[in-house]
Amino acid sequence: MTNEAIIELKNIDVTFHNKGQTVNAVKDVSLTVNRGDIYGVVGYSGAGKSTLVRVINRLQPPTAGTVVVNGQDILHLTPRKLRAARTKIGMIFQHFNLMDARTIADNVGYPLRFRLSKKNRQEKVAHLLDLVGLSEKANDYPAQLSGGQKQRVAIARALANDPEILISDEATSALDPKTTSSILELLKRLNKELGLTVVLITHEMEAVKEICNKVAVMESGEIIERGDLVSIFSQPKKPLTQDFINTATQINQALEKIYKQASALNLSDHQQLVQLQYVGASTDAPLITELYKRYDVVSNILYGNVEILQDTPLGNLIVVMSGEPDKLQDAWQYCQDAGIKITHLKPTDSEVA
Ligand SMILES: Nc1ncnc2c1ncn2[C@@H]1O[C@H](COP(=O)(O)OP(=O)(O)OP(=O)(O)O)[C@@H](O)[C@H]1O
Ligand SMILES: [Mg+2]
């Protein structure tokens, strides 16, 4: 990773007018992606993710704002220069968009059909198929491949023109979790080996967690939060971000179960259900011992999880803490002073039901 910007979107608006209705799909979004980043853009359906990334190669002209890619002002290029610039921005999609009547090799070689001699093209295609681990499928047809293999073909095709940027728009959304992981691993390897900059659009923070170094969260056409992966995961500021993270770290799933049993937990006023989040090497066991020794507070762990993000451990615990009310306060203060984020959990009536 360097600090050299490869994509600079400034104050981008995209407004659609449809049958008398106005949709502000992207609102005043600025985004800088550095060379070598794997930048995640996460948001629910309709947040404006696809519209925003289509602005990068001007597939979607913005209503306002500026777009600089690789130092070029994309909005003021001649058609010929725009075509050239676009070849350096590869794209992959959820539905692969392969040509069913052509072989795998022909699909991959398609973007090169006017550019290279037959021999050079065959060599290039063989190299690309090798890169994505599909050499033996060269003469097969898309219908003979699994979803994961099809996406590998799409990736090989997207790399045919040696792009510097790869935009992945929900490329793993149609795949099962294991296949998703293998595709994400491939993107990560291409990022490392080829220096490829990746913009990864997804509605799953899980995917972001696996390979991204940076992430932006979109809601209603705006980027509501952004930053490097570890700080977003350890210090999310917006509830939506926290929600995405809680799903990716299985906390929401655990909470659902815990809330269902909340009445069984039968908490007294000397007990509190809390979530503890901590970053770095500090582990749960010494903390819990410390809270007991110092404040007579007993912590009963209901759920625990440690994620390794970019080599940094990020821990999550859901515990019932029991103790004298003022001692509980002291214990929480102690946690906070130790850099541990505390969230007091309270099952709402609907969640208990
Ligand atoms: N060509 C278009 N004409 C009119 N409205 C559009 C057009 N393209 C997108 N929109 C609207 O813009 C908003 C953002 O759409 P967009 O496809 O960018 O969302 P998204 O975050 O990619 O969603 P998803 O996760 O479902 O792919 C939506 O309200 C959508 O209906
Ligand atoms: Mg989309």
Automatic annotation (TrEMBL):
It catalyses: ATP + H2O = ADP + phosphate + H(+). Part of the ABC transporter FtsEX involved in cellular division. Has ATPase activity. Essential for cell division and viability. GO terms for cellular component: plasma membrane. This is ABC-type metal ion transport system, ATPase component. Belongs to the ABC transporter superfamily. It comes from the Bacteria. It comes from Levilactobacillus paucivorans. InterPro entries: AAA+_ATPase (IPR003593), ABC_transporter-like_ATP-bd (IPR003439), ABC_transporter-like_CS (IPR017871), ACT-like_dom_sf (IPR045865), MetN_ABC (IPR041701), MetN_ABC_transporter-like (IPR050086), NIL_domain (IPR018449), P-loop_NTPase (IPR027417). Residues 9-245 form the ABC transporter domain. One of its GO terms (molecular function) is ATP hydrolysis activity. CDD domains: ABC_MetN_methionine_transporter (cd03258). SMART domains: AAA, NIL. The keyword S-adenosyl-L-methionine does not apply.
